[in-house]
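thread: overnight batch results

M.L. [08:02]
morning all. the overnight job finished for the chain we discussed friday. pasting input first so we're all looking at the same thing
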Amino acid sequence: MSYFQRAVAMVLGFAAFLLSHADLPAIAADYGKPNIVMILVDDLGYGDLSYMGAPDLRSPHLDGLAARGMKFSHFYANCPVCSPSRAALLTGRYQALVGVPGVIRTHAENNWGYLSESATLIPQVLKPAGYHTAIVGKWHLGLEAPNTPLDRGFDHLHGFLGDMMDDYYNHRRHGINYMFHDQTEIDPKGHATDLFTKWAIDYVTSRQAEQPYFLYLAYNAPHTPIQPPPEWIDKVKAREPGITDQRAKLVALIEHMDDGIGQVLSTIEQQTKTGGRPTIVLFSSDNGGQIEVGANNGPLRDGKQSVYEGGLKVPACVAAYGSDLIKPGSSTDFQAMTMDLFPTICELAGATIDHDIEGRSIVPTLLGQKQEQLRDQWFFTRREGGTRYQGKTIDAVIKGPWKLLQNSPYGPFELFNLADDPKETTDLSQKNRAKYNELSAALRKQIQREGAVPWQKPE
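M.L. [08:03]
and the structure it wrote out:
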């Protein structure tokens, strides 16, 4: 397709989009397209924000973001660990179908994914629609070319390529420095959360109103090590008598992150009040909270690494600044998952998706319109190594109220009715063999489909 043809397609696609969503001219009338900020945090539990019911935690800025727009009570991560959910977010596809069924790591013997070179990432779709694109924070989809952010379409990088930091202050992993500013390796001083906050603000304030931007802001907090600044621990302990040291540290790390997000949101709000473009902010977590370090996943079973609900269900909200596009104080039990954010962002941007994806836009829901369920079957998979997994997968499928899962490659399949049993306490696999057989057949078909995509780095 020629440049002219792409330009015509873009204009026609955005025109059709505006006609089908009558409320969007509130954004497009003066500026054409909104800025879009996607905030993804790391290992945040379903119950670990005050607006999600945490009794010992204060998150005023994320509470405010949720109050400004729409919060979701049934939002799922594509996977209970990091890399796969990030792959799903940035491609709009089931993660195994783009080569990332498990965590991408430094050492080959412990690496369980390789982002497919044929995968199309969100900046590659947004740039033809006129967007400048940036990532600040954690990447975790490749440590070298051709799988760094700039290789995969982003215009700007200021952050960390690796899976996790061994220390929030020296930013190394296995002694290797993965911190980069565009193509330059850097060695900044300070807590990673503070650095990512500052760099996000720097990016937002550097952009000119003439061109819309997409910012993917990916904090590594509250991932381990649980290492908040000491003054934040003191603040939590002074306020919460009786709190354990372990829980106080995690609460402090989350509250410190919330404060940083608040600084970014304040900058965005100020820009919209002084002539900047309206800005849509989306927020979620890559997976559930890690119970072993004191996370709160609310009433849900288990947490990070698990395909029980506590590993998959996460907080999520979307709000608009400088526009009344999304009704303040709204909430929904509409079910969506990480990969659905890709087409949602593209639709908000008026960008054309001309390739197949499994994600489905939730823009109608954001506009307060009735929307049919996004899919009949919802698949979750994770591949992992070590003696606990030996390179095998754990899997789950949800259809209606029914969920079939295998939480260990060496354990049994279990069947739950989430409507009657949201805490997954009663296995019905022996009592309802018809449903068990139906879902297990669907899961086998999905596993076969995923098996066609390599997840090892090509030789």
